[in-house]
Amino acid sequence: PAMSPASDGPVVRLESDEIARGPGVYGRQVLEAPGVEDGALVSVEDASGRFVGHALYNSNSDIRLRWLARGRKNALDRPGEWLAAKLKAADDLRRRTLRLEEQGDTYRIVHAEGDDLSGLIVDRLGPVLVCEYHALGFLRLRAELEAGLARLYPQATLVARAPDGAQRAERMAPALLPADEDLPEHWITEAGLRYPVRAAGGHKTGWFCDQRDNRVTVGALARGRHVLDLFCNTGGFALQAAKQGARRVRAVDLDEKSVARAERAARENALAVECVHADAFDVLRAVAAGAEAERPDLVVLDPHKFIAGRAHLETGKRKYADLFTLGLQAVRPGGVVAAFSCSGALELAEFLGLVFSAARRAEVSLKLLRILEAAPDHPQRPDFPRSPYLKGALVAVDR
Predict the structure, then answer these.
(1) How far, in Å, CA of 57 to CA of 392, rounded?
(2) Which pLDDT band holds residue 144 (cuts at 50, 70, 90)?
(3) At a CB cut-off of 8 Å and minimum separation 6, what does 92 contact?
(4) What is the pLDDT confidence band of residue 326, given thresholds at 50, 70 and 90?
């Protein structure tokens, strides 16, 4: 059945007339709303009873309200049409404005807050669209979302997933959760290379679209060099380095499935990449200690998220500091290191501070060549400071 107009639905009131900017409203800023169903589309009023906008409500979530539209009472009188228009606008940005289909068939269609759809991620992985639900409200709108996406990509297979953390934070009822779909691997194309992926399997949606441009940028420095790609996943940085003329490439990951995919990708693209099943810290310690005859000229440090939330900030920062120190010790004098963090709780200034303090620990001098960030299919809103979660530093290392 079609969604009812928001004006016919429940009303939730804020505890103040001051409306903070940003994509969501926290629980302490919202009055209790007995009888309002979790995940419902609601109208929002300020403390004086004035209409503010429409949002998705969840009493169990720290983010009590996720804004959909603000200011116009009739904005969601036809919520299905509104949602379809938002999806089309997001898709137009990728296909018409950024022309991403000219670079491959793999990109992010919806980037949550950046596309004014807080709690929703949609990635295109070749012939498959992966919808990742971080908000109960969008999970309840799954049928409408999939109908809108099917109009944009009529030939695509649609897959849904709700990450474990989102299930807990939003208290998603088991009956609502998407069924586990063990889809076979398929091939995607990105920047002239083919990779095997399993949609909604492994990390995130099955592929890291955010690093697409950085893989090409870092790969451009690889010609004639020995490259060490750590936490390589399916070999994105390693294969780009090999494609752009690296003399030697090693791709290291502790996940055996990731290493196997990287090996298949190297064969498919007829590229020489040494894929190694090992712990990145152990490999770096061996290189820095001189246990290996040849030190790399270019080191890529692209770990998984070390900081799951603010509670893990200090522990995660120590882990990043150790990794960056080892990477800077391992690279050949005059070499280059690309260091990354995908932890949203770690701000850019803190991240750069960790890189620079790691240089002091490693007793090397750095030149910051470039700050790297997510590809433009991950747009940012200025009123959401945690939006630019992916941070990278490309540094040249002196001795």
Answers:
(1) 35
(2) very high
(3) none
(4) very high
For Cα atoms 248, 254, 256, give the angle at the middle one, nearest 5 degrees.
90
Q: 3-class secondary structure for 310-348? A: HHHHHHHHHHHHHHHHHHHHHCCCCCEEEEEECCCCCCH
How far apart CA 118 and CA 132 sit, in angstroms, is 11
Is the per-residue pLDDT at 182 higher than 90?
no
d(CA 212, CA 94) in angstroms, rounded, equals 14
pLDDT tens for 189-219 read 999 999 999 998 777 899 999 999 999 999 9
pLDDT band at 399 (very low <50, low <70, confident <90, very high): low
Active site residue 232: no
User: Cα(first)–Cα(last) distance of the chain, in Å?
Assistant: 67
Residue 160 tokens read as 């849904």
Q: Is the pLDDT of residue 344 over 60?
A: yes
Segment (H or E) for 147 = helix 142-152
| 299/32 Cα distance (integer angstroms) | 52
Q: What single string gives the DSSP state of each residue in 345-360?
A: TS-HHHHHHHHHHHHH
- Helix axis angle for 142-152 and 79-92, nearest 10°, is 40
Give the pairing of strands 51-57 and 24-26: unpaired
- Spatial distance between the Cα atoms of 133 and 167, rounded to a whole number of angstroms: 9
Marked catalytic residue, from 209, 232, 275, 342: 342
Evaluated on CA atoms 209, 214, 371, 310, the torsion sign reads: positive
Which residues does 292 contact at the CB level (< 8 Å), separation at least 6? 286
Contact 109, 123 (CB under 8 A): yes
In whole angstroms, give the CA distance from residue 138 to residue 79: 12
Rg of the chain, C-alpha, whole Å: 23
Locus of tokens 């949606």: 205
Q: Which of 265, 303, 100, 99 is nearest to 188 (CA)?
A: 265
Residue 66 has pLDDT above 90, yes or no: yes
**171-180 own/partner pairs: CB under 8 Å, 24+ apart:** 171/38, 171/58, 171/60, 171/61, 171/136, 172/133, 172/136, 172/139, 176/136, 176/139, 176/140, 177/139, 178/133, 178/142
